[in-house]
Amino acid sequence: VVYHLKEWVQGNHKVSRKADDDKGGTMRLGGQRCQLREGSLAKNIYGQGEITERHRHRYEFNPGYVERLEPSGLQLTGQSVLDSLVEIIELPNHPWFFACQYHPEFTSNPRDGHPLFTSFITAARNHHQGGEVTAEALATGAA
Q1: Which CATH number fits domain 7-17+27-140: 2.40.50.150, 3.40.50.880, 1.10.150.110, 3.90.1150.10?
Q2: Ordered DSSP codes for the chain
Q3: Nearest to 30 by CA among 55, 59, 66
Q4: What are the pLDDT digits (tens) for 78-105?
């Protein structure tokens, strides 16, 4: 599902990329704007429709897999504003499944935790205590 591949099939022939190929400007660095899907866990956690998060990677979600993954329940809930790259995926039927391309640890610290970490800890605590993991609790960090 990740685009950082050495070989792949395109049509009826194999395409390859050498390990030492120049990757040029493929590195995504710094703050990137991301549009969040209405009703998503991401939108509940952040409390807004657009966020900016820090990146440092050369990976992309392969859009060729969207039609295979969405019917299984995977939702693409965040896309970059400028080039519509997938930034966030979720499994809505799971208490807290959230995967992102960016690095929330870059902007988190012990006194002001990143909203993703606060939300995850809240969900884990509520689950451990036998409580329900609600969107409101995840957004506010309430027990």
Answers
A1: 3.40.50.880
A2: -BS--SEEEETTEEEE--TT---TT--EEEEEEEEEPTTSHHHHHHSSSEEEEEEEE---B-GGGHHHHGGGT-EEEEEETTT--EEEEE-TTSSS-EEESS-GGGG-BTTB--HHHHHHHHHHHHHHTT----HHHHHHT--
A3: 55
A4: 999 988 899 999 999 888 999 999 999 9
Q: pTM to 2 decimals?
A: 0.76
> Burial level of 125, CB count in 10 A (0-12/13-18/19+)?
middle
Contact 105, 114 (CB under 8 A): yes
CA distance 109 to 54: 15
What pLDDT digit, counting tens, does each position of 9-66 carry? 556 666 665 655 555 556 788 899 999 999 999 999 999 999 999 998 888 888 888 8
Cα–Cα nearest to 26, from 61, 63, 59: 59
